[in-house]
Write a structure and sequence with these properties.
191 residues, alpha+beta, 3 helices, 7 strands
């Protein structure tokens, strides 16, 4: 992981988790019939009915953190190369991004006498787009310094499959959306 990737991961991971948690809490996911079924399974097993949502949340956040910061940093590095190709003067630019959707899933299995009685598979889709504003490259004494400033990221969480037999929704069922604004001005890097 490059220095830029590491710094970006550290700055955005808590905000991403908080945003996805907020989307799930504000959604009507607990009103969906199959979610009620899984909730009752957890209750029968002596666990909190909310445990399965927390499990789904942990899986979603794990997939996000394995993809978004690294992919965003990689695309940013490519954009910097394009904008600084043979440039020996200071430049300032914005970087728009639209990342490939992530599709994490959970599978809940009900067992009776150690035999699988029923499975419910849930597939989510996370769309992420945004803009990194006012990226500056300063040329000083034969070295270049990268200064990042503002990041605005829009996250959309949808449900694309939920069910015992794998029924897919004709269109993703939107659970919620959240915009994250972060100050990345602490990220400065020589290159």
């Amino acid at each position: 992981m490059s220095g830029i990737e590491y710094q970006m991961v550290e700055l955005i991971k808590d905000e991403l988790k908080s945003s996805i948690t907020s989307i799930l809490e504000d959604s009507n996911i607990n009103e969906i019939e199959d979610v009620k079924i899984v909730s009752s399974w957890y209750h029968e097993a002596g666990k909190s009915k909310e445990d399965f949502v927390l499990k789904a949340l942990n899986i979603i956040v794990e997939k996000i953190m394995a993809y978004i910061p690294q992919e965003l940093a990689s695309q940013l590095i490519d954009e910097i190369r394009i904008n600084t190709n043979n440039q020996e003067t200071d430049i300032k630019f914005n970087f728009n991004f639209d990342l490939e959707p992530i599709k994490p899933f959970t599978q809940f299995i009900k067992k009776i006498n150690d035999l699988t009685a029923l499975k419910i598979k849930t597939i989510f889709q996370i769309d992420c787009s945004g803009i990194m504003q006012d990226i500056e490259i300063q040329v000083m004494e034969n070295k270049k310094i990268l200064n990042l400033n503002n990041l605005e990221m829009n996250l959309k969480l949808s449900l694309i499959q939920l069910g015992v037999i794998g029924i897919k929704f004709p269109e993703p069922k939107k659970l919620g959306e959240k915009t994250i604004s972060l100050d990345l001005s602490t990220i400065r890097m020589n290159y």
